[in-house]
Specification:
Blueprint (H helix, E strand, L loop, with lengths): L1 H8 L4 E5 L14 H5 L6 E6 L4 H11 L3 E4 L5 H8 L3 E8 L7 H5 L8 E6 L15 H4 L7 E3 L8 H6 L5 E4 L6 E3 L2 E2 L1 H11 L1
Parallel strand pairs: 1-2, 2-3, 3-4, 4-5, 5-6, 6-7
Antiparallel strand pairs: 8-9
């Protein structure tokens, strides 16, 4: 909770919390439901789920007072629609530089069923979190017409690269484990330095 309060004080817009039990960053056993649901914060509390069922997602949303859901797995457009009818929804897409699949084609069935996109780097095993950046050029040249986040391997030294990125619907950057002291614990000094470098 202390980290959430610190991020709220820095006027960060979103704070992601992982509700995927196989993750080192799983928060379900670290934050009390009542503590989070009753917290007086301006920051949007984002619950991150990987291939979870609709009922599990919505139960967690209610229990923890979440503001946004991030679907970080292989969720279908139908599931995205069900969730986004209830709460703001971010759908993650894994971008593989070696794939021939175009970004616009990848998104075509999701355009009406979520509120934001997030683009992360694909790993060989299809999961996320390898700390590497994908080539942002394809995103910059795409016809995306929905607010989106850039993710995947963005570290404290990448502020200039982020500042140079241009797309009319680019919304923000999603920082990752490269800003952590340990899994789930952000290095606030590193984050502050990154924020100042973005100005």
């Amino acid at each position: 909770m202390k980290q959430l309060q610190q991020l709220d004080g820095l006027e960060i817009a979103f704070a992601g919390m992982v509700f995927y039990k196989k993750s080192l960053r799983y928060v379900g056993d670290k934050i009390l439901k009542e503590e989070l649901s009753d917290a007086d914060l301006d920051i949007k509390k984002v619950g991150i789920f990987v291939n979870a069922e609709f009922d599990e997602i919505m139960e967690t949303v209610e229990d923890y007072g979440l503001d946004v859901v991030q679907l970080h797995g292989d969720e279908t457009p139908h599931l995205c629609e069900l969730v986004s009818n209830e709460i703001e929804t971010i759908k993650t897409f894994r971008v593989d530089d070696k794939s021939d699949t175009l970004i616009d084609y990848m998104l075509k069935d999701y355009d009406e069923v979520c509120d934001y996109y997030l683009f992360d780097t694909a790993q060989k095993n299809g999961s996320n979190g390898n700390g590497k950046k994908f080539n942002w050029k394809e995103i910059a040249e795409s016809k995306i017409e929905k607010p989106f986040f850039l993710s995947g391997g963005i570290g404290p030294e990448d502020a200039l690269l982020v500042k140079k990125f241009r797309h009319p619907d680019y919304y923000g950057v999603d920082i990752n484990h490269l800003f952590e002291k340990e899994p789930g614990i952000i290095d606030m000094a590193m984050l502050l330095q990154f924020m100042h470098s973005l100005k």
